[in-house]
Amino acid sequence: MGDSIRIAVVCSSNQNRSMEAHAVLGKKGFNVRSFGSGNQVKLPGPSQDRPNVYEFGTPYETMYNDLINKDKNLYTQNGILHMLDRNRRIKTCPERFQNCFDKFDVIFTCEERVYDQVVEDLSSRNPIDYSTVHIINIDVQDNHEEATLGAFLIFRMAQSLANSKDLDNDIDELLQEFETNINRPLLHTIAFQ
């Protein structure tokens, strides 16, 4: 399979963790796409009860300019402008996983709730050719430091999976070894596409 495995990274609706993993995997030559799983893109606002909400498909450039106009200092200090700047260099706009019908070999999620959403969504679809997709969850906290660490853990895991000559046969052993090395629990299931 090599680095030609098709990877999706799906996180919640704010895009930080999935885009950080997308950036790392993309730089390392992986065929990767990133997604959110919520109904809208939610970015921190001036207070916890006032997030900035955008529809999926809204260009990162639009979000970036909107937040500069709202409060450049606040969104510079909390890192949101930096995150959006990185995102707009990777792709045009955020995508919602449930609206994508492309096939992947591996889907990484960053929290159990999103893992459940992905599994539920895939199980509700009518498979086209019954090819398998491995859905793997590794919990990554939603902050800049953890997103960076999580991206490198996902990269290491993707590298290990890409080096397998028979992923379907080797995956349980590879994940068990990886789980032991990183001392974090993983979730894994197979779905059909």
UniProtKB/TrEMBL annotation:
Its main location: nucleus. It catalyses: O-phospho-L-threonyl-[protein] + H2O = L-threonyl-[protein] + phosphate; O-phospho-L-seryl-[protein] + H2O = L-seryl-[protein] + phosphate. Signal peptide: none annotated. InterPro entries: RNA_pol_II_suA (IPR006811). One of its GO terms (molecular function) is RNA polymerase II CTD heptapeptide repeat phosphatase activity. It is an enzyme of class 3 (hydrolase). One of its GO terms (biological process) is mRNA 3'-end processing. It holds the Pfam family Ssu72. Its EC number is 3.1.3.16. One of its GO terms (cellular component) is nucleus. Keywords: Hydrolase, mRNA processing, Nucleus, Protein phosphatase. It comes from the Eukaryota. This is RNA polymerase II subunit A C-terminal domain phosphatase SSU72. It comes from Blomia tropicalis (Mite).
